[in-house]
From TrEMBL:
Pfam families, per the entry: Polyketide_cyc2
Organism: Fodinibacter luteus
InterPro entries: Polyketide_cyclase/dehydratase (IPR019587), START-like_dom_sf (IPR023393)
UniProt-recorded name of the protein: Polyketide cyclase
Amino acid sequence: MGGFTTSIVIDRPVEEVAAFLSDLLNDPRWRREWVGARPASDQGSGVGTRTLLIGQFLGRRTEVVYEVSRSEAARLTEWETVSGPLPLTFRREFEPAERGGATLVTFTYEAHPNAVLRLLEPFVVSLGRRQLDGDVPSLRAILEA
């Protein structure tokens, strides 16, 4: 099981950053691989809520359904893949940063590849990290505007 963790500081209050990043419907606004999103369940925003993300990966259209598996208001949200090409768990954690009024966000991704994808795991993990690192400036620009 491969994965990675990365952190950023956003100059906005924890509650505001957590509200934005705990709703996957916002991801197409700052993640380049997602071109659309829609609710995939009738539930609210807590554990069990499902979201369908529509994306482009290596030139192919992908549809992935994620389900909130853990949620602690303004502290963390965690999702697991329900359907899609790569089983994974990812988490976004929020805490006050050292400079007042800012938020430290920690992103953690853990891939759970099947036997075939396990061969590509180093590539997939590296690609995921590069994509996230490339998208963070967009996230910061949206939230700090």
